[in-house]
Amino acid sequence: MYRIVSIATVVLGTAMLLPSAASGQTRAIVRVTQATAVMENPRGDSMVAGPVPSGAVLEVLEARGDWYLVTPAADNPTPVSWSRGWIRASLVEVLTPGATISLQTSPATTSRPPTPGDPLLLRGFGQAGGTLFSARDSFEAILGSALGGVFGGGGQLALGNGLFAQVGIDRFRKTGSRALVSGEQIFRLGIPHVITVTPIQATVGYRIPGAHRTIPYVGGGIGWHAFEETSPDFQGAGDVSDSAIGYHVLGGAEYRIAGWMWLAGEVQWTAVPNVLGEHGVSAVFEEDDLGGATFRFKVLLGR
User: CA nearest 206: which of 162, 161, 165, 173?
Assistant: First the structure.
């Protein structure tokens, strides 16, 4: 009987101590090592909750991946304008190593690299810009300039691991004049001549995670490029229609201005060999590449 009472006493005492031990746990206190911004959600392209200067002292409420949900500590020496937000763990140092950080994801998840955005984004986009064609002499002879405006649109699927795939279509169309090249002289004949280029391009790439709403990206792919030359006054005589496969690489950055809208700027280089050079001024100048450098701005919409 005495032994049973003793065991019950030990068990009861242990049970009473457990809540006390749990209540003695303290949250981690961290110091910001470089000026940055805290986000509304634990991802790089989330809306910014507010700036946080270097040296700010924060209290960690929970952790998700390599992000901490923080609030200003009671003894924070640098006041901030926000009450809570997410900050990357790599931008802070822990001042209380023995404190508890409540993990909201499994250990396997926390070891994964941060993602640049939502788990899945399905977006449509419109775009406009200009192309500087590689066949510079040929385009200048007919159109007066090798630089022309392009516009188009498409759709994109972006995954949470940073990979994205998209299909887009552009359109270049400009009216110039038929030309004759004799030696080093170019004679524009005053006969309207229309050049149309329509590329349909598929791209795969990677959106690079960032600490703010600006997400750099790179990509490359393949495209089908349609090329037409027409002279309306000649009712189809001498018209040219051709197409070829081209290859491209691109890079740019997008900026989230709302939960469903992004603005982006990008530069693309394209090679489309063996389209020109068989007739007309392009044969004289020995230029066969329909590609060039394209600079464009994009508006992306979706979730």
Answer: 162
Reported as a pLDDT band with limits 50, 70 and 90, residue 23 is: very low
- State the distance between the two ends of the chain, measured CA to CA, in whole angstroms: 69
* Same domain? 292 vs 173: yes
Closest C-alpha to 128, from 158, 165, 169, 167: 169
Interatomic CA distance for residues 303 and 262, integer angstroms: 11
The answer to whether residues 98 and 224 belong to one domain is no
Query: E-strand spans in the chain?
Result: 29-32, 36-39, 48-52, 57-64, 67-72, 85-88, 92-94, 120-133, 147-159, 163-182, 185-207, 214-230, 240-258, 261-271, 292-302
Q: Is residue 3 part of a domain?
A: no
Tell me the CA distances in angstroms from 113 to 160, 179, 219, one per residue in order: 10, 57, 20
Total residue length of the chain: 303
Residues with Cβ within 8 Å of 130's Cβ and at least 6 positions away in sequence, in order, are: 147, 148, 149, 150, 294, 295, 296
Structural domain ending residue among the three candidates 80, 110, 140:
110
pTM: 0.64
Smallest CA-to-CA distance from 190 within 229, 136, 149, 231 is with: 231
Q: What is the pLDDT of residues 225-268, one digit of tens each?
A: 999 988 876 666 667 888 899 999 999 999 988 778 999 999 99
Lowest model confidence (mean pLDDT) among 15-24, 140-149, 177-186? 15-24
